[in-house]
Amino acid sequence: MIPVTKTTLPDFDDFASHLKDVWHTAVLTNNGPLVKHLSAALAETLGVEHIQLVSNGTLAIQLAIKALDLRGEIITTPYSYVATTNAILWEGCTPVFVDVAPQSFCIDANLIEAAITKKTTAILATHVYGYPCDVVRIQEIANRHNLKVIYDAAHAFGVRLNEESLLRHGDCSTLSFHATKLFHTAEGGAVVCRDEKVAKRVFLMSKFGHVGEDEYLDLGINAKMSELHAAMGLAVLPKVDEIIAARCERSGWYDRYLADLKLQRPGVVNGLEYNYAYYPVVFNTHESMMAARKLLQAHNIFPRRYFHPSLNTLPFLHKNLQKPCPVSESLSQRVLALPLYVTLTRQEVNMISSCIKNAITV
Question: Is 181 designated active site?
Answer without folding.
Answer: yes
